[in-house]
């Protein structure tokens, strides 16, 4: 794991089931995450993924790559275009800093509408 | 008229809200629901919770109500009253001091860190509201989050493309030799340097004609029509004032010179395009390209 | 020419050197002098890039060089690399100096990164026709040429990728390379993300912290020094008609690098050798497409034929024109071309890790897309 290493690209299919089950599993009951009619009424194209799920996906993307021994210390994300039901959310990542066992990974999650999430994850890996 | 800044200062002064206890202690059923939904097969979450779950424990729930001393709720109310009725989250920065163990019961406090605005954004004019939450187990802080939302007044009609923040855009250097070009753009004229001696058309321009040596450059006003000679679709890194990905095209104008500019739409070599002018501010108008309707 | 490279030196190549650029320059220069068997007190000339932040007098102070009779800088970014040796060789030939050190050192990864948009560079009038329009990185500027090249000659992203694959293959067996033990496949290249279409991440060189220095002296003096001299058979600079820095978009033909054509003509004329006499080519590879164009400008193949030349395997270590045996700037490190000159010296000496057999002549080129330079180094003057 060196600076410049790329994480394998990862695709998440944001099916309605995925959007809703993750919203509920993160205890986010806002209607825009599970009720399509209300979401559209509020000006959205469809229901969309909630922030806590985005945070969880970013964490998973990094730990899937870094392995279960890695400890997650920080997840900093900037939110962009919503990830709607039926979107494919594509994750890209790269190691941008390393200081001994502390790594910083830059992560981008993108749909056809643009960057859904950009951010950095700091992890600590075993020596 | 509501003084948003004064109200923000009042709320910030109140400091941390009272600790709010999670409904349940950290527990395996909720962890497993989360792992299932996210699809995470990490084998390590049998005695500790995924760190990204920290906020989940203290979510208000299906019939949740904001507590009276919740600074984010208070600030949202003020901005609603000030006419900034829509909200969108922009940043979440979470730091985990340690992993939470099953059985631990967390509580959370929140304080208002910063309110800045009003700012013009792609969505409309609005205020950025930043809060800081801290999760505790007993007296021990175990995680923190800086959370930022944009509370905005929706633009009349959502722009198809977010407006470029002016302060960000890269501005051209302009000198005696190139001033005529930028003056032309301000007047929505695409000017091409024309030698006062021999008539040579030249872009980019210069003070002395390489053909005849004359130093009396004039210009003609181009029809602003041409075809794409080459192009790039730029993805990385970010470019100040632009939203990636975007297209930059090298256009061969009908008058025979080439010129760079951003291209709106699907690019291809040979695509007929025409110039459009975008006013950045009083001093600067930028030329760019769009596909021709008559192509 | 009556000049030779008698010493080479480098720091480690890293992403965060943890030391100042001046320290990197001083360390590289001292290493090069040790390699040459010379002392700082023997040095009377220093040459670097105008982009280098280390003043000649600062380097002289750190090394304890007492007096300088020659100091000079070369413009245009990586285009300066081989021209530093040209400056040094001219100084030695004309007697302006006896021992000249050429150096380049920077914290290009941990400090000022060239790959980012340099807003300050927009203050240059030439850049006012590109930066404000959103074309503000070297990768994007090269991509504009690459797109047209693909259009005219039917080259593909895979044709560019083969350059990255061969560089990384060579780097994989070079312990000094950043990408030691990390070769890539063409599939890896095709899967890497877009930077500026048609360029992908793996078409772009690294960003590196480090320093490289070279010691140039007369052929006679070099003969008495410990290492086998790498004779400077030719060293030339080149700039073409209607030349810009990275954005020469206003010439008739965008598929060429006329400035490299000028360099090539000069190199073959002055060295008396031709393309078929080159045993190893160290070609500047900050972005893969320009390696193809260089092969054409230097006369190794015809216009538009580089893709076939590359696909034939010619650039492998056992091919007809082994390319960048150290791994180049895509594989070893990005030191603005100076690490490539050091590799050329090792190939002439016979001490490279990926040594090519029976090397008589090595060709080196400097930065592309900018006014540039080149070298032919050889076993004899
Ligand atoms: Zn004229």
Task: Explain how this protein is built.
The complex is a heterotrimer of chains A (127), B (295) and C (381). With 127 residues, chain A is an alpha+beta fold. Chain A has one domain (6-124): Thiol Ester Dehydrase, Chain A (Roll), CATH 3.10.129.10. Helix content of chain A is 25%, strand content 41%. Chain A has three helices and five strands. Chain A has helices at residues 16-25, 36-41, 51-66, and strands at residues 6-14, 71-79, 87-99, 102-111, 114-124. A five-stranded antiparallel beta sheet of chain A has the order 1-3-4-5-2. The longest helix of chain A is centred in the middle third of the chain and has 16 residues, at 51-66. The mean pLDDT of chain A is 92. By secondary structure, chain B is α+β, with helices and mostly antiparallel strands. Chain B has two domains: 4-154, Thiol Ester Dehydrase, Chain A, CATH 3.10.129.10; 166-291, no CATH class. Helix content of chain B is 15%, strand content 37%. Chain B has five helices and 13 strands. Chain B has helices at 4-13, 28-38, 54-57, 71-81, 179-186; strands spanning 20-21, 86-96, 106-120, 124-137, 140-154, 191-195, 201-202, 217-221, 225-234, 246-253, 258-263, 272-279, 285-291. Chain B is elongated. The relative contact order of chain B is 0.11. The model of chain B is unreliable at 157-163 (pLDDT under 50). With 381 residues, chain C is of the alpha/beta class. Chain C has twelve helices and eleven strands. In chain C, the strands form two sheets. A nine-stranded mixed beta sheet of chain C has the order 3-2-4-7-1-8-11-10-9. A two-stranded antiparallel sheet of chain C has the order 5-6. The longest helix of chain C is centred in the first third of the chain and has 16 residues, at 21-36. Chain C is globular, with a radius of gyration of 19 Å. Chain C starts with a strand and ends with a strand. The interface between B and C is large, with 38 and 39 residues. Strand 9 (225-234) of chain B pairs antiparallel with strand 5 (194-197) of chain C, so a sheet runs across the interface. The complex binds zinc ion (ZN). The site of zinc ion has 8 residues of chain B, from loops. Chain A: InterPro entries: HotDog_dom_sf. Chain A: This is Acyl dehydratase. Chain B: One of its GO terms (molecular function) is DNA binding. Chain B: Residues 223-277 form the ChsH2 C-terminal OB-fold domain. Chain B: Residues 25-145 form the FAS1-like dehydratase domain.
């Amino acid at each position: 794991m060196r600076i410049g290493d790329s994480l394998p690209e990862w695709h998440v299919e944001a099916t309605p089931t995925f959007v809703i089950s993750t919203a509920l599993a993160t205890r986010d009951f806002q209607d825009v995450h599970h009720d399509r009619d209300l979401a559209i009424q509020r000006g959205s194209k469809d229901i969309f993924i909630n922030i806590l799920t985005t945070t969880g996906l970013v964490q998973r993307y990094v730990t899937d790559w870094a392995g279960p021994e890695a400890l997650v210390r920080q997840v900093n994300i900037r939110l962009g275009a919503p990830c709607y039901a039926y979107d494919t959310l594509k994750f890209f990542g790269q190691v941008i800093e390393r200081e001994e066992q502390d790594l910083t990974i830059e992560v981008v999650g993108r749909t056809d509408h643009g960057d859904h999430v950009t951010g950095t994850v700091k992890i600590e890996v075993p020596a | 008229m509501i003084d948003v800044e004064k109200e923000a200062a009042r709320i910030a002064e109140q400091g941390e809200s009272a600790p709010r206890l999670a409904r349940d202690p950290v527990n395996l059923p909720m962890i497993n629901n989360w792992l299932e939904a996210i699809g995470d097969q990490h084998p390590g979450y049998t005695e500790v919770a995924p760190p990204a779950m920290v906020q989940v424990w203290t979510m208000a729930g299906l019939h949740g109500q904001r507590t009276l001393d919740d600074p984010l709720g208070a600030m949202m109310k003020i901005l609603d009253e000030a006419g900034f009725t829509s909200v969108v989250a922009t940043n979440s920065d979470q730091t985990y001091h340690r992993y939470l163990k099953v059985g631990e019961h967390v509580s959370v406090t929140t304080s208002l860190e910063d309110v800045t605005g009003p700012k013009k954004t792609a969505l409309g004019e609005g205020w950025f509201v930043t809060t800081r939450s801290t999760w505790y187990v007993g007296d021990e802080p175990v995680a923190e989050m800086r959370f930022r939302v944009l509370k905005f007044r929706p633009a009349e009609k959502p722009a198809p493309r977010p407006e470029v923040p002016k302060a960000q855009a890269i501005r051209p250097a302009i000198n005696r030799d190139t001033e005529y070009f930028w003056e032309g753009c301000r007047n929505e004229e695409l000017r091409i340097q024309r030698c006062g001696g021999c008539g040579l058309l030249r872009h980019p321009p210069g003070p002395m004609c390489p053909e005849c040596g004359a130093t009396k450059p004039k210009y003609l006003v181009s029809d602003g029509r041409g075809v794409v000679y080459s192009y790039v679709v730029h993805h990385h890194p970010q470019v100040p004032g632009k939203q990636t990905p975007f297209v930059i095209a090298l256009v061969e104008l009908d008058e025979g010179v080439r010129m760079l500019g951003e291209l709106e739409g699907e690019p291809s070599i040979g695509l007929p395009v025409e110039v459009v002018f975008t006013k950045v501010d009083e001093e600067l108008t930028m030329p760019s390209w769009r596909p021709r309707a008559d192509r | 020419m009556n000049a030779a490279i008698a010493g080479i030196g480098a720091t480690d190549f890293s992403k965060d050197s943890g030391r100042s650029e001046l320290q990197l320059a001083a360390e590289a220069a001292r290493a090069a002098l040790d390699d040459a068997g010379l002392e700082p007190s023997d040095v009377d000339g220093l040459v670097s890039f105008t982009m280098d932040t280390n003043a000649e007098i600062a380097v002289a102070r750190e090394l304890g060089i007492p007096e300088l009779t020659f100091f000079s800088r070369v413009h245009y970014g990586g285009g300066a690399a081989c021209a530093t040796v040209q400056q040094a060789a001219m100084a030695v030939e004309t007697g302006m100096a006896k021992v000249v050190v050429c150096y380049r050192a920077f914290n290009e990864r941990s400090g000022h990164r060239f790959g980012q948009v340099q807003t300050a560079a927009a203050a240059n009038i030439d850049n006012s026709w590109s930066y404000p329009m959103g074309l503000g990185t070297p990768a994007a500027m090269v991509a504009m040429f690459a797109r047209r090249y693909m259009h005219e000659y039917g080259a593909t992203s895979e044709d560019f990728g083969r350059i990255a694959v061969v560089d990384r293959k060579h780097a994989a067996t070079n312990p000094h390379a950043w990408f030691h033990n990390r070769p890539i496949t063409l599939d890896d290249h095709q899967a890497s993300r877009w930077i500026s279409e048609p360029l992908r991440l793996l078409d772009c060189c690294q960003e590196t912290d480090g320093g490289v220095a070279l010691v140039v002296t007369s052929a006679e003096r070099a003969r008495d020094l410990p290492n086998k001299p790498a004779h400077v058979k030719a060293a030339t600079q080149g700039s073409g008609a209607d030349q810009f820095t990275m954005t020469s978009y206003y010439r008739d033909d965008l598929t060429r690098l006329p400035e490299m054509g000028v360099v090539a003509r000069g190199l073959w004329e002055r060295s008396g050798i031709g393309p078929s006499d080159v045993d190893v080519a160290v070609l500047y590879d900050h972005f893969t497409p320009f390696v193809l164009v260089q092969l054409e400008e230097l006369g190794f193949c015809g216009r538009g034929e580089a893709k076939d030349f590359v696909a034939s395997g010619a650039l492998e270590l056992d091919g007809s024109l082994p390319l960048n045996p150290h791994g180049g700037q895509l594989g070893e490190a990005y030191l603005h071309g100076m690490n490539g000159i050091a590799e050329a010296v090792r190939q002439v000496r016979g001490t490279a890790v990926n040594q090519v057999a029976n090397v008589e002549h090595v060709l080196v080129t400097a930065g592309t897309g900018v006014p540039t330079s080149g070298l032919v180094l050889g076993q004899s003057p």
